[in-house]
Amino acid sequence: MPPDQGSPTPRRGSDPAPRPGDDSAPRRGEANARRVEALAAAARRRRRLQTLLPWIIIAATFLLWEVLVRGLQIDAFILPAPSAIAASMIQWWEPLLSNAWQTLMTTLVGFGLAIVFGLALGVAIGSSTLLYHGLYPLLIGFNSVPKVAVVPILVIWFGIGTVPAIITAFLISFFPIVVNVATGIATVEPELRDVLRALGARPVDIIRKVGLPRAMPYFFASLKIAITVAFVGSILAETVGSNSGIGQLMLSASSRFDVPLVFAGLMVTAVMGVVMYAVAVAIEERTTGWATRGQAEQNVTSLPGG
Amino acid sequence: MATKERPFVEIDGVSMQYGGVEGTLALRDATLNVARGEFVVVVGPSGCGKSTLMKLVSGLWPSSAGSVIVGGQEVDRPLSVVGMAFQNPTLLPWRNILSNVMLPLEVVEPHRRRLRRERAAYEDKAHRLLAMVGLAGFEKRFPYQLSGGMQQRASLCRALVHDPELLMLDEPFGALDIFTREDLWAQLQEVCLTLKPTVILVTHDLREAVFLADRVLVMSSRPGRILAERTVPFDRPRSLDDTYKQDFQDLVHELRDHINAARKGGEIADAA
Ligand SMILES: Nc1ncnc2c1ncn2[C@@H]1O[C@H](COP(=O)(O)OP(=O)(O)OP(=O)(O)O)[C@@H](O)[C@H]1O
Ligand SMILES: [Mg+2]
C-alpha cells in the first residue's frame, strides 16, 4: 500500500499538485478507516481552535490592557481602561448607536458606489490595453492625493453634512477595487480566452464568461480592503465637516476631554469594520471556492473519497 | 458552386511566424485540403507546428502568409462551425464539468437562443457525452478535482457538444492510458460515423492515426510543412483487432519511416 495515498496535505496553500483521486480508492481495511477518522478528528480540532483563537486573543488583549492601566495607574485622560470605556459605552449608548448607524449608512452608500463604478472602470481598463495605459497615470495621481485635503473642498461644494462623507468613502475605496478588477481581467490566461474565441464569441461574451469570473477572487480581495478604508474615509469626513456620525461624536467628545467616550467611538468603529469585513469574507468564500480549490471543506470532507 | 465538391478546408501556402520578423518560423508554406466529411490526421515531430496549424485553421491567429478557407469562407476570425479541443484541457476552473461542457451552447447560435427553453434536452446531451467518455457522475465536480486525463476527456465533450461541422482535435488523447485511449478511438469513430463531421486530428500515436484517419499527413520538423500523405484504405467501422493485422502494421511502419526521415531532415535544416 503506497504510504502517500490520502496523506494530509491540504494545508499547503495553493499547491497545484493533483489531489488523491476519489474515483480509484478502494476500501483499504479498518486500519485505513481509523486513520481517516483520526485525520478528520484532527482537522475538526484545528478548526475549532481556529474559530476560538481570535476571541481568546481579543479577551487576553483587553485583560492585559486593564491590568496595565490599573497597575501603572495610568490616568483615564491618557488611556482609559476597558472597563471605563465599557462604562462610557453604557452611559452614552443612545448617541453612540444613532451615530454609528449614521456612519454605517454613509460608509455603505459610498462603498456601494465604489463597487459599481470600480467594477465598471476595472472591467473597462482590464479589457482594453489602450484604456489601461491611457487612464492609469490619472488614476494613480488621483489616488495619491490625500483625502483629508479633499474633504474641505467637498464641504465647500456640498455643504456640511452626509454628502461629503459619502463621497470621501467612495473616493478612498474606489481605487483598490478598480486596480484589482483590472488586474484580474488583464491577467486572464490566453488559453482560456482562446477557448471562447475559438467558438466565435464576441468580446462581450469573453468578458462575461471568462474575464469577470476570473476577476472575482481579485474583486473580493479588494472588497476586504475597500470596506475598511471606506470607514476611514467617512469618519475622516465626519470629523472635518459634518454634524453627525461617529467621527463627529469622537471629535466633540475629545473637545470635552471625554477620552473614554472617544475610545468607545473607536471600539464601535472597529466592530463595524470587523463585521463588514466578515461579511465580505463570507460572500467571497461562497462565490469563489474554485480559486482556493475548496480548501475549506477539503480539510475534512474529501478524504474518504465520498 | 458548392456542388463541384470544393474542399471544405483549403489551406494554401500558409506560413506562420511568431513574434514578428525575428520570431520563430513555425510553419512554412503548408498546403493541404480536407474534403467535407473527411477525417484527416496530422502527425509530425514535436514542435513542428501542428498546434500552430490548428490555431490558424480555427482562426485564433492570423497567418503570416497564405490563405485558409473553410466552407468557402476566408478565415480571418474564429468561426463558430468549429469545435476545438486544445492540447491542454483548458477547462474554466470556476465552472463544474457539466457547465464547462455546455459552454459552447451559451455562445454558438442557434443553441444560444434555444438554450434557455430547451435546457433539459441540452443537459441530457451533455450527460450522454460525458457518459460516453466515462465521466458519468462527475458532472458536478470542478476541474481541479479531476485527473489530467479526465479533464482532457471533458474537453473533448466540450468540443463535440454543439455538433460542429469542423472538429479540430489537438492530441485529444495525449494524457490517457492506452486502454482508455483505445476505448475512445472506438467512441470517436462511432460519433463520426453518425454525425459525419469534418475532422482534423493531431496525434503522436501512429496506430491511433491509422485507426481513425481517412488520410494521414506527415509534417516536417520546424518550420513545418506537409511532407507526405497516405490514404488509409481500410473499411469502416474499424475494430481494434484490425490494428494488429499485417497491412495495418505495414502502414504504421511506413508512417514511422516518414517521421524518422522528417526528424533527421529537420535537424539538418536547423543546423544550416
Ligand atoms: N505563442 C507562441 N509564441 C512564440 N512561439 C511559439 C508560440 N507557440 C508556438 N511557438 C513555436 O512554434 C513552434 C511550433 O509550435 P507548436 O505548438 O505548433 O508545435 P507542435 O507541433 O504542436 O508540437 P507538439 O507536438 O510538441 O505539441 C515551436 O517551435 C514553438 O516554439
Ligand atoms: Mg502541439
Describe the structure.
The complex is a heterodimer of chains A (306) and B (272). Chain A contains 11 helices and no strands. The model of chain A is unreliable at 1-23 and 296-306 (pLDDT under 50). By secondary structure, chain A is mainly alpha-helical. Chain A has 2 domains: 23-74; 82-301, Orthogonal Bundle (MetI-like fold). Chain A is 75% helix and 0% strand. Chain A is flat. In chain A, 33% of the residues are buried. Chain B is α/β, with parallel strands linked by helices and 272 residues long. Chain B folds into 2 domains: 1-81 and 184-209 and 216-266, Rossmann fold (3-Layer(aba) Sandwich), CATH 3.40.50.300; 91-164, no CATH class. Helices cover 37% and strands 21% of the residues of chain B. Chain B has a 6-stranded mixed beta sheet, sandwiched between helices. In chain B, strands 2-1-4-5 form a 4-stranded antiparallel beta sheet. In chain B, a hairpin with a 6-residue loop joins strand 9 and strand 10 (226-231). The radius of gyration of chain B is 19 Å and the shape is globular. Mean pLDDT of chain B is 86; it is low at 266-272. Chain A binds chain B through residues 18-19, 21-23, 191-192, 194-201, 205, 209-210, 213-214, 216, 288, 290-291, 293-294, and chain B through 55, 58-60, 77-80, 82, 84, 86, 88, 90, 92-95, 103-104, 106-108, 138, 142, 144-145, 147-148, 162. Bound molecules: adenosine-5'-triphosphate and magnesium ion. Adenosine-5'-triphosphate binds next to helix 1 of chain B.
